Amino acid sequence: MLQTSNYSLVLSLQLVLLLYDLLVNAFSELLRSAPVVQLVLFIIQDIAILFNVIIIFLMFFNTFVFQAGLINLLFRKFKGTIILTAFYLSLSIPLHVWVLNLRWTDSKHYVWTDGLQTLFVFQRLGKARVSPPPPQILHPGPSCCSVLAPPSLSSFPSLRIPPCRPRLSIWLSHRSAL
């Protein structure tokens, strides 16, 4: 199981992969004259997107919500992130193949067709909406257990969920302990 101290490491890894993806998207056109380098960057970019998806699902599997059997709740909450990531990956691979097919033989000329421009715009729009899941859902604290515990959970007597306290009362109890 993923420990609390490792969440920042995993989140940092996700952000590094997203930063690499952003940098390749921003500067790959500058390497138009070196198609082999562009090919290697695109392959690493697609692998980084796959690693990001794997990390998201591994973080799902390490939540208490998943271990309690409420998988549907997790997927309903993160359905947009999962769909947009799959959409982005499914548009990135054809875009990379198309760009390299057009520019492989004649990399000195700037080739940009209407279909390539359309695919480019849709791929970039998909990227603008993909983000890693918020860490407060992946590591639930006492203030968010009411969101994660639906009322139907009372039918499971063996599953004990701690009662929720508002943030103000938690702050006051810590302040009075000092």
Helix and strand pattern? HHHHHHHHH
Poorly predicted regions: 134-169
Q: Strand fraction band?
A: under 5%
Residues in helices, as a percent range: 55-70%
**What is the typical, i.e. mean, pLDDT?**
76
First CA to last CA: what distance?
33 Å
The radius of gyration over CA amounts to 22 Å
Q: How many structural domains does the protein architecture include? A: 2
Short description:
This protein is 68% helix and 0% strand.
Describe the structure.
This protein is 68% helix and 0% strand. The chain has 178 residues and is mainly α. The chain has 2 domains: 4-140; 142-178, no CATH class. Helix 5 (79-103) packs antiparallel against helix 6. The two termini are 33 Å apart. The relative contact order is 0.11. It holds the Pfam family TMEM138. The chain crosses the membrane at residues 6-27, 39-61, 81-100. This is Transmembrane protein 138. One of its GO terms (cellular component) is cilium. It is a multi-pass membrane protein.
